[in-house]
Amino acid sequence: MNLWLILSLFTSILAVKDYLFKPCEQNGFCNRNKHYSKNVESSPYNINEINFNSEGNFISGIIHKSLPSRTVKLPFEISIIEGNFRFKMNENRQDINSIVNINRYDETPKWAFINTTNDQFIYKNKEIIYRDHKVAVQFNPVKFTFYYKGKPQLIINDKHFLNFEHQLLNDSDLLPFESTYNTNSDDFPDSKNDKLPLGRESIGLDFTLLEFNHLYGIPEHADSFSLKDTSNSEPYRLYNVDIFEYETNSKLPMYGSIPLLVTSKPEVSLGIFWVNSADTYIDINKGKDSSLVHFMSENGILEFIIIIEEKPQLVNYQYGKITGFSTLPNLFSLGYHQCRWNYNDEGDVLDIHSKFDQFEIPYDAIWLDIEYAENKKYFTWNKETFPNPEKMMSVLDRTGRNLIVIIDPHIKTGYQISDELLAKEITIKDSQNSTYFGHCWPGESVWIDTLNPNSQSYWNNNHLQFMKNNKNLHLWNDMNEPSVFNGPETSSPKDNLHFGNYEHRSIHNLYGLTYHESTYKSLINRNSNIRPFILTRSYFSGSQRTSAMWTGDNMSKWEYLKISIPMILTSNIVNFPFSGADVGGFFGNPSKELLTRWYQTGIFYPFFRAHAHIDSRRREPWVVGDPYTGYIRDAIRLRYKLLPVFYTSFYINSINGTPVIKPIYYENLDNGDIYDIDDEFFISDTGILVKPITDEAESKVNWIIPDDSIYYDFTNGVLSGVYKDREYGLGDIPMLLKGGSIIPMKLRYRRSSKLMKYDPYTIVIALDKDGKAYGELYVDDGESFNNDHAFIKFKFENKKFSYCIDGDYLFKLEKLIINGITVTNFKNNTIVDFDIDYHDEL
Ligand code: NOJ
């Protein structure tokens, strides 16, 4: 490795440097779209032709862009997909002599959607009518106004920011307010080699949201839950990058992108799904009465979907019908995961494994980072440190534990796998269509092109040979932005080529998804009846179907604990619930108090994993010593007690998209004060309300009660009387339970989730003002795709507890806890009568 490389490698692992990432001003397309939006006088886009097909499910037409010298014809389409408005606009380009596919990339839905069928609708008098929605179409200039509940809710191109950078025929083929900044070259220091073979090709569009002031979504950013006004700052950027030591409260891009922006007000919730996988910026301007959102992308066709519904849950449902819901996770993966970079060898792994039992702390998975493979050559084991991995896995398996190992998309040059990738021509290519070589953990590497359909069978074989029949072996896909240490913005050059000769520029934000989906298919190919577990760092719309994600390389500081909650809430409301942050913080060494509070927060992350950098000190739960170890043990055990709640919440999410951790505004849209709360949340619709302590030496919690229900103190998962202000010691986990809720729990300590399988349930009942309560439980074998299950609905009304079971699966009741009173005098699986005065405990 030459000195330059060593230096550049070294600098890339120091703190995040703003200069490594392009600000809008220096990013050609963003600069030009901002210039356009500031200077446009009147929109040059007019609908010239519009045809409604005879089946009544499709509009096609031509939009004219009027230039001084000619008219550019832009074909467009309107359809209704799963009950939502979909718009697409493209251009017919003239061929140029180039290796690059000159067509605008229009295959983002192929990766992001599971459904593309068109519903019927009515089009007459320039109005599109579907369900109880209406869209008024203005032709000159083009503008769409969306009506719902008799009122306009959204206007598109009201501000005339619609910008479709057409293929230039000559230098004067432009409108006076179109800029030429960085049209054919890139001034940004690290991107100077970008050849921009197709020149400028960006798109931009404005969305005016009427009477909406609280906007959310468009992850991934380490920022507040409620999106900020960007009028005087950088726009939010979506560009999947390996952002080492990211800063909090920042609009810089991070590892994943979901271009779904959501907003709510009483009676109306709305989603803008910007279907584009290229580099994207989003400007937000919050006015007194409305909000203006400006999406800008570097290339691709212009495509978006508008979802308008009565409630935010229904937006989740609609979006889920298009992009798919999360697959119900393998139950073990909802347990506790113990990771660090690295557990060094088999002895180390088995020692950690047995310490959990010695300290009576449950766990479900232990992880191996990049050092397990020989010289970071994935699909191999370092024979000195891991001579007998199968034996190690079988020891773990005895107590239901799993092993998760990392396989990244960069493949070291000079060994069998990379040789074969080269021979099969399934690597990412450079701008000249030769294999692209770059640097990552193993040194010089090539990258598998998982957009290439020929990659899959090869990847299947590698996984088969490596994973064999080890049923408790699962995978971690990291660095799949892709991270390239010597690439621009630590990623692949944008003019690299993928299958179909599409530029990397067009598909950048979905490469990570193609990689982890390819892993998923390989695991299904290995065993089609075990639900695979895959953790991915990079993601896109649709990733929720096959993977979990985490928020990458955070730090052992209080501010990172705090920001983890809005980040994970954001992921939940854009249908990617299986999310978590490194408990304890990746870089650095947490204080004992911080570590304790982090576990107490982490037990509510849908994905609950502790992880640490190679240079950080060991910090497994017993290392801190008592009383901290005791507090951490209690926290982890509480997660296990609540596993039925989490599993049921994931089940509900898998059928209708309800967030697993849910912002409190979802519970009461009429309460204008709770929309921006981002340090308190519900677990799904269960009524469990959580507000983790994320400040040092804090013992008070400022509860925000979303509605006028009774809320009970549920500290540490123990139901007591109606909640009052109280102190929370370091061993206390602040929780409330909403009156009217019934919670299924499993209270016995076991070493892993698998060993809890036959344990009976304790049903916790918190009565509402009328003495009623309801709840749900989903049970199945927790690991296969068999459909044997039971869905149980609990009810408490008229002093009588009852339940009904749909399906047939192991369900044993042990006791009820009603407003804090334990009741055991009933027979299993029968309806029972209680004669207790529930008011006693109020
Ligand atoms: C970067 C990941 O974010 C981190 O979690 C991991 O430990 C390192 N890569 C090494 O694989």
From TrEMBL:
Q: Subcellular localization, per the record? A: Endoplasmic reticulum
Top-rank taxon, per record: Eukaryota
Record domain Glycoside hydrolase family 31 N-terminal: where: 76-283
| Keyword tRNA processing (UniProt) | no
Q: In which pathway does it act?
A: Glycan metabolism; N-glycan metabolism
- One GO cellular component, as annotated: glucosidase II complex
Q: Which residues form the Glycosyl hydrolase family 31 C-terminal domain?
A: 657-743
Q: Name one GO molecular function term.
A: carbohydrate binding
Q: Which InterPro entries match?
A: Gal_mutarotase_sf_dom, GH, Glyco_hydro_31_C, Glyco_hydro_31_N_dom, Glyco_hydro_31_TIM, Glyco_hydro_b
Which parts of the sequence belong to the Glycoside hydrolase family 31 TIM barrel domain?
327-648
Q: Do you know which Pfam families this protein is assigned to? A: Gal_mutarotas_2 (PF13802), Glyco_hydro_31_2nd (PF01055), Glyco_hydro_31_3rd (PF21365)
Say which family it is in: Belongs to the glycosyl hydrolase 31 family.
Tell me which PANTHER family the record gives.
Answer: ALPHA-GLUCOSIDASE (PTHR22762), BCDNA.GH04962 (PTHR22762:SF54)
User: What name does the UniProt record give this protein?
Assistant: Glucosidase II subunit alpha
Provide the taxonomic classification. Eukaryota, Fungi, Dikarya, Ascomycota, Saccharomycotina
